[in-house]
Amino acid sequence: MKPILLHGHERSITQIKYNREGDLLFSSAKDQQPNVWYSLNGERLGSFVGHGGAVWTIDVSWDSTRVVTGAADNTCRLWDCETGKQLAKIDTSTAVRTCGFSFSGQELFFSTDKQMGYECEVFFVDVRDPRQMVNGNSYLNIPILDMPKVTSAVWGPVDEYLITGHEDGSLCQLDAKTGEMQATQKEHNKNVNGIQTSKDRTMFITASKDNTAKLFDTATLRLLKTYKTERNVNSAAISPIRDHVVLGGGQEAMEVTTTSTRVGKFDARFFHLVFEEEFGRVKGHFGPINSVAFHPDGKSYSSGGEDGYVRIHNFDPQYFDFEVEY
Amino acid sequence: MEEYQEDNGSDRGEEEEPDFNDPSDYVDDISDEELLGDLLKKKPKEADGIDSVIVVDNVPQVGKERLEKLQNVIRKIFSKHGKIITEHYPKEDEKTKGYIFLEYTSPANAAEAVKNLNGYKLDKLHTFAVNLFTDFDKYANVSDDWEVPTKQPYKDHGNLKWWLMDQDCNDQFSVIYEGGEKTGISWNSSSGPVSIEERARWTETYVRWSPKGTYLATFHQRGIALWAGEKFKQVMRFNHPGVQLIDFSPCESYIVTFSPMVDTKDDPQAIIIWNVRTGAKKRGFHCENAAHWPIFKWSHDGKYFARMGPDSLSIYETPSFGLLEKKSIKIEEIKDFTWSPSDYIVAYWTPERNDIPARVTLLDVPTRKEVRVKNLFNVGECKMHWQNKGEFLCVKVDRFTKSKKAMFCNFEIFRMREKQIPVEQVEIKEAILAFAWEPSGSKFAVLHGENPRISASFYHVTKGKVEQLKVMDKKMANHIFWSPTGQFVILAGLKNMSGAMEFIDTADFTVMNTQEHFMATDIEWDPTGRYIISGVSWWGHKVDNAYWIWNFQGKILHKQTIERFCQLLWRPRPPTLLSAKQLKDIKKNMKNYSKQFELKDRMSQSKASKELVDKRRQLMESFRDYLEECKNAYDSTKEQRLELRGGIDTDYFDSHREDWEIGRASCRERV
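^ Those are the sequences you sent over. The predicted structure of the assembly is below.
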């Protein structure tokens, strides 16, 4: 499959996200300007201009009207998806590391880094309430005191809780109304780099610096499957239509020079969801892959890399015929 | 009373010395021993002198007329080891008895005489038996309480060649990993490596297999340990503290160990040669430096071993471990020597000296006859390469140009099996990077040139000439690895050439495959020539440590990443027991044999599949159950989802993409 190369960022990609319908692909990078693209042909729709630092995280509401981003300039900003206009700016004490719209799209959460004396905190704001969309007025904020900072997070299936991944590899379930820590789990032993849910949100997959990705049950945080590699996994996603997961990762930038500098050596790896066996690899990136996502229809997937490129891959017919014998 | 002078001032001049006399009634209590100990030791004792006496037996029995002549002869021979002070020729009936007594000035002389002259052949009928006089006493007084030594129970180590009986004819290899902490033994099976043994701290540095694969040698602070048999039990230990290097004799009967630590002037212990089966120390040697290990080179079957000195070649024979013909061969300025892999021939070279040109000499052992000599001119350096069957010898000669400013190289090819060993010259204009003979074949490969323009040339040696078969340009290679069975070769760029590997069939010089194992430090063919292992050793490169298994065509079979992988060695196989004719017959009937093996392979593959498939089925079943639960949970929360999205059933729209437009319209309405 010949991929579509999206070249619009000058620095490494930090996160990519499809909207619910899949026609739009959002990308955030260290270059301060997130972009939105047509996933069909890779044409760039526009950029969200305003941030003053590396943008770590991006999300789009289910109805594709609002976009939220968090950045190293200590702000979390809300944008109009169609026009690209900045709708609100929430100032924070430290860099915003993760963010996301709730299922209903009416709330969003964001987490800040533990830096310069400030603790890591998770904030919940109601998007419809303008008063909350300024600093400090979140309806709920949860300081993360006894645990290492939050590195990634997703909402539960019906917004009842937030699932957070932490710097030491642990996972938590935080009640979305009270902020109470309902459950906690530690299966990874290093940074949880990314969390993505399955289509029906009953399961989620975590990508970790400990060279594995793991599949968990959302409600109980029970470990279901482990996918092993020999490199740092930055991002993992579950196919919406098949028993496949894709893992993207690679060595940290500093160590890259010790591996082969042959063209396009960094690969996305496909594993069977149930059998945990690797069945394919897709090469092409010139640096570690930082974010992967399946298109909601499962017929393609995208990856964003340290090299600043986003690559959209449409699967060949063989992909759909491929069956692991059992 | 001691006298004591007072000092009265400067008038007196010099002081008188104080009196050191003993008081008059003083008797000293010091013994003679304390005062004169060393002198007393020299005081003649009654029993003295016996230690300096030797008894010589098998002396010709002569009458009075020839006695004086005999005495002169004896005196002349035995004076070599010291001054003789007494001679005694016992007589009976006017004739000497046939044994004599000689006394030297010191016991050391007597001992030396015994050492050197015992067994001295005076003439055809008389070989001296020389012994210390005191020995007679010693042996006469052997205790009658001699106990029969207890019989050592026979230690049966099992079938040491057990691994050769493997049904699937798989080979074994040893792996050192975790930075040297762990050593493991694995089978190379068709489905990948299967580990059979893993031990922590089995060796302190590295391991070596014996030449026929019977033993695994491990290194320890105190010496070497040998392991063998199905359970890899310790079968022998050699105590040699600080051992650094070892070498086995080709027949596996002996092992040579080197340690720089224990050498003393009188008892050479730097190099020790042991008997492998009994563990007995056979002989020790001095060694100043072991830079060019092995110092001792063995003949192909272990009958002789040799080492060179600055101007000599010393050849020893086994099992006596004595110097062949009791003296070394004098070869002035000998630079290097090698044994033929098939005959008792030593090849050595000497540099130019005065008017004598440099030369390569082939010497027959033990006759010491020079079977071939080749003079060479303007020689800088020579390196010898034997083909593995001893059929050819290649000497790589680095020569100076006439102006002595540049070096160029040529090969002298000796065709050993032809009458008078003809020598052919092959000249290469570029710098040589590597040279290798095809095992059991008559081809050789040369890598020459300079990065990036390196070429590989292949030559063929036939009766009468050496012809160039093929030159391949622009190779990224600095090593040549022939298959042990010949025909196939890998040109590899190791270490700083980032692990490029080219698999070539030299029957028609097709490049079967071009591959890469990035930063590979080692490449090893298995003993059968079916598989190759390429490895990135932690000793050379600190990341990506792993070994990869390829088949001889260059197809990757398995990649094994191991934590801090260090060294992999295939277990050698002993030479085949089949005769040349039998091998030929098998090759002719290959089709029949291959059929039964193919069937076996297929069955083993499907067997593996079956196990895997069963495992997968189980996994899928249990996961399906889980998915059922998920579905139920999802269905049960449908109401909530509808509510959260203001009544819009996005579940429906996500599964029915054809109705998207309607869905989108609904969204816009809501907003």
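The longest helix of chain A spans residues 317-321. The helical segments of chain A are 317-321.

Shout if you want it in another format.
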